[in-house]
Design brief:
single chain; alpha+beta; four-stranded mixed beta sheet; 35% helix; 37% strand
Length: 105
């Protein structure tokens, strides 16, 4: 599966547009990660626990989108967009939503 944020793929011609595909993931952050991130805000440095959760959420959302594209008979997704939002009470959860156009090249 070829994935790109661009509307086309250099060297390939899009033969068929299958439709829009999406993937969504919502992950809650736990109190320990919040506490450690707060300490890093004070002393500096990267919040590795949050970065790991963010990567996992993005990867899960992308895989869900890829599976939907494959089910439609696509072999590529163009125009991919990745959105990150905090949701829930006190913004305690992270939502990653991906979208793109499933195509056959």
């Amino acid at each position: 599966m070829i994935l790109t944020t661009t509307p086309n793929i250099d060297g390939y011609q899009i033969r068929e547009y299958k439709g829009v595909v999406t993937g969504e993931t919502i992950i809650g952050a736990n109190i320990l990660k919040d506490f450690m991130a707060g300490i890093r805000d004070i002393v500096g440095g990267r919040a590795n626990a949050y970065e790991k959760v963010l990567r996992e959420a993005k990867d899960t959302s992308m895989m869900e989108m890829i599976q939907r594209a494959q089910a439609m008979g696509a072999n590529a997704i163009v125009g991919i967009d990745i959105d990150y939002e905090t949701i829930g009470e006190a913004s305690s959860m992270l939502m990653v939503a991906t979208s793109g156009t499933a195509v056959v090249i």
